[in-house]
Amino acid sequence: MNKKTALLALFALAIVSISGCMTAEPPQEGKLYIRTLIDGKDTLYIKGDSMWFVHHSYQLPGMWAGDNLPTYINQDQLWNHVWNRNISDVVKIAKPDATLPVSGEWSSENMSVKIYTSGFGNYEVKEYPGKANDNTLVIDLNDTEPLGAHWYVIDIDWDEGAASAEAPVAK
């Protein structure tokens, strides 16, 4: 491959990567709104007013192309991650009305978790908060597709009156 072709290919790859990072962000609808840059596989845990990541592969959340970008919480709180191997620091959600409920049984029927990505990644709510998992929401973010990191937006909403002691916990 000649030098011009290699530079053109590199330029095209940069444009594709940058365009994925700059797509329009969906409007905030829920009570807790998270925007994070993922390149690889990570799991986000949210319990009450606390959030943390467990990193599984590729780059740490926010790390890509020499940048160390924060995770945005409700568009006005920046979380600059501190890592202990593959586990991030625990951040406290600043707005009290954005903290997840710490009682009741939650499922897709009474807690809305909408996830958007600017790339080709996969995502899944692994567990909803409930007694069985110490009221922790667990979300897998999987951006192992090619072409670099992509932004993930997680929009969470719930109705405090909708939690039931008998509602099944989604698996």
What is the domain total for the residues?
A: 1
N to C succession of SSEs = HEEEEEEEEEEEEE
Low-pLDDT stretches: 6-23, 165-171
**Which strand-content bin applies to the residues?**
35-45%
**Helix share bin:** 10-25%
- How far the N terminus sits from the C terminus, by CA atoms, comes to 49 Å
Outline: globular
Report the mean per-residue pLDDT as an integer: 83
Compute the CA-based radius of gyration: 18 Å
Query: How many distinct beta strands?
Result: 13
Structural features, described:
Residues 6-23 and 165-171 have low confidence and may be disordered. The protein has one helix and 13 strands. Strands 1, 2, 5, 6, 9, 10, 11, 12 and 13 form a nine-stranded antiparallel beta sheet that branches. It has a two-stranded antiparallel ribbon with strand order 3-4. Strands 7-8 form a two-stranded antiparallel ribbon. 11% of the residues lie in helices and 42% in strands. It is globular and about 65 Å long. It has one domain (3-162). 27% of the residues are buried. It has one helix spanning 3-21, and strands at residues 32-47, 50-59, 63-64, 67-68, 71-73, 77-79, 83-84, 87-88, 91-92, 111-117, 122-127, 136-143, 150-158. By secondary structure, it is mainly beta.
